[in-house]
C-alpha cells in the first residue's frame, strides 16, 4: 500500500516537471517573431507565465506537502530505506531497528550498497538496480540470510536514481517458525529420546513429555528437581565431571552412559550428550542435552559378557583340573577362577576328613586368603557349610541379610555381601568336600547353573587327585622303605644310618622337624641326647642339646615302655606340662616312635608339625614302624661293625704313630749330623781364619812402614844423582842393569798391590769369622745386611765369569732395616743355602724356555725381571736380586734368580728332607730342609718358594722383628 502512494506522488512530480519544460521551449520559439508580435505574444506569455507561476507555486507547495508526507511516512514505516544512483552508490539512507537484518560492512553515504551486503545478496541487488533503470518499473524479490527472510523493493526516480526499501517478512518467519516448532514438538513427543535442559546448578528446567513414557515420572515431578535425585549414586561423580568438561572446554564431548532411576524403583541405562548455552559474556545459561534408553542393549551386552565370563570360567576350571600338579594348586586355581570370572568376593573349598567327620578348609581366594580362621575345621552338620555336606544339597541365596543360615549378618552388612552359593562336592554318592562363595552382587540363574556344573567337575577332580595322591604316597612309602632298607643294610656306619632315616622321614611326611634321640643310660645321670635332626629353615637348630624335664617326661616314659606318642592337635592334650612343652617348640602336632635294639640301645624318632592340625595317618604310622624295625636291626649290625672298626683303627693308629716317630727320628738324626758337620766346619773355618789372621796382620801392619822406607831410599838416590853426576862407571853400569828408572816407578805399585792383597785377606778372614759366629750364642740384635754381605763375599768367586758361564750380576735392593733379633750364624747358613742354590740354577741355564723344541730367552716372570733380563739369545744375563723390606712387624728377605725355574710338583717337595733335583753326589737334599727348620721352627717365621718353569725362582724369608 505504502509503495503505491509513494509511486503516485513520484509520478505527479514528474508530470509537473515535464509541463514546465514544455513552456520553456515554447517561450524560446516566440522570441523569433517580430517585436509587435513578440510584444503581443510576450503579453500572452507573461499572462500564461503568471498563471503557470501561480500553478507552479501551487504545485511546489503540493510537492513540499507530499515530500513532508513521504518523509513522515518514511519515519514511521519499519523498512530500511536507501536512495542510490545508477552505480549503486548510497546517496541517502535511513536505518531502522531490524535486529535480524544482516549487513556485512558499515553503511555510509558515498559507499557502494553492494559492499555493505553479503556477496551473493549484493550481486542480486546490483542486478535489480540495472533492471529498474532499464525498465523504469518497480522490481522486488525475496532473499534469505543467516538471521531471517527479507523482501527488497526497487523504485525508479528521476535523474537515474532509485529508492531501495528492505523489510523483514515477519509473517512468513513466524509462520515458518511456528511450523518448525510444531514439527519439532511432534518429533519430540513421538521420539524415544528424551530432551532436557538443566540450570547451571543441575536443576531440571525442562524435560520432554516422553520422560513419562520412558521413566514413569510426570513432567511436573521432574522439572524443578535436581538431576542427582534420579541418577545412580555410583554414577553421580561421572555425570558431574562430564558437565564440568562441557563448561571448561566448550567443545562437544563423547557420550556418557549412566543409570537413571525408573519410578518403579528399577535402574535404567541411558546414554546422553549435552552442550552449554552461554550469554554474550560467555557465562553458562543452561545445559541442553538429549538422552536415550540403552537398557536393552546393555542387558544384551551383559548377557553376552556373562556368557563369555562363564565360558572363560569353565575353561579355567577345566585347565585347573587337567593341569594342576598338586591337589592344593588345582583347588586354588578353581577358586581363583571363581573370583576372577564370576566377580565373587571370595571363594573356598573344604575337603572331608572321613576319620574325624570334619570338613577341613584347603584353599581360599579373594578378599580372604587365609585358611587358619574359625572356619578352618567345620564338623559335618554344623554351620551352613556342615549342613550342605550333611544334606548333600546346595544352598543358594541372593539375600544374605535375610538368610537364616548366615549367622554373622553384621559382617555381611559391613562387607556388602548380597549373594551366597554353596555346593556339596559329591562323586558317586560319596561326599568329598564343599565349595562355597560370597558375592557383593546378585547372582544370575545361569551363573548358579554354571557353578553347579563346575562343582560336579571339581568334585571329580578332587576325588581323582586324592586317589592319585594316595597311590603316589603308597608307591613313595614302599620305595622309601625299600631305599632305607637297602641303604641301612648296605651301610655299617651308625651315623649314616640314623642321618639318612631322619632326612628321608622329614622329606616324605612334609613335617617341620624330625629328630633322633639316644637315651644315654650308661651315664652317671641318664639323659636323652638329640643327635640328628632335619628341620624347616625358620626353626632353630637343637642338636646336642640335652632334653629338659618336659621332654624326658613326654618321651622317656613312653619310649622306655616301647609305646608310641601320637598327637594330631596339641589343643586336645590334657597334660599341662606336655602341652607347654609342645607350645614352647611351636608344635601343633607331634609323634614319637621308640627304637629298641638287641644290644640294649634305646632311641626315639620325634616328628613335629608347626602349621596347624596334622592328622597322623595309619599308613604313615605303619611305615614309620617298619622303618624303626629296620633301623634297629641296622643299628645292631653297625654297632658290631663299629666295634671291630674301632679295634682295627686303634691298631692302625698305633702303627702310624710308630711310623711317624721313626720318620721323625730319622729326620732328627740327619739334621743332627748336618748340624754337627756345619758346627765342625764352622770351628775349622774359625781356626783357619784365626791362624791366617796373625801373619796377615803382621804383613798388613808393616806395609805402611816399608812403603815409607822405600820412598825415603828412592828420594836419597835422586839426591845422589843430582849432586854426584856423572856417576862412576861401575855405578852407571849397575843403574843400567837394574833399570833404575823402571824400578822407581814400579816399586810403589808393587807395594800398593801387596797392601791391597793383605786387605783382601783381612776381609775374607773377617767374613769367615762373622759367618761362623762361634763367639755369639743365642738370639741377639743383628744387622741382616751385614750377614748377607758376608755370605756374598764368601761366594764372590762363584759369581765371577768362568769359561762357558758369564758373570752373575748381583742386584741389591736393601731397605731401611733395624737390627733384627735372631740367631746370626743360623740365618747366615740360610742365606748361604739359598744363594748357593740360586748360583747352581743359573749355571744350569739362564732364563731359557723350551718351546716346540727351540730355545728362547725368557723376558721376566718371578721376582719382576721384566726390565732386567736381556732379550738377546746371544747375550743372556744371569742375575740374582736380593730385596729386603719391612711389612708390618716382620722383616722380609727375597732372593730371586732368573734361572730355569721349577714345576709345581717340585715346589711342593722342596723343603722335604733328602729331596734334591741335583745329580747324585752333588746335593744332599738337606740344605733347604735345614733352612726351613731354622726359619719356621727356630724363628717362628715363614720360608716360601715361588717358581714356574722358565720363569726363575724366588725365595721369601719372613721373620718377626722381635722374637
Written overview of the protein:
The chain is an alpha+beta fold. The protein has 24 helices and 30 strands. It has a 6-stranded antiparallel sheet with strand order 13-12-11-16-15-14. It has a 5-stranded antiparallel sheet with strand order 2-1-5-4-3, sandwiched between helices. Strand 17 and strand 18 form a beta hairpin. Helix 1 packs antiparallel against helix 2, helix 13 packs across helix 17 and helix 20 packs across helix 22. About 3% of the residues have low confidence.
Q: Which structural class matches the secondary elements?
A: alpha+beta
Largest sheet: 6 strands, antiparallel
Task: Extract low-pLDDT stretches.
Answer: 847-863, 865-875
Multimeric state:
single chain
If you average the pLDDT, what whole number results? Answer: 78
What is the C-alpha radius of gyration, as a whole number of Å? 66 Å
- Strand order, main sheet: write it out: 13-12-11-16-15-14
Shape: flat
Quantity of strands, as a count: 30
- Gap from first CA to last CA: 145 Å
Tally of helical segments: 24
Question: Beta-strand percentage?
Answer: 15-25%
Helix content: 40-55%
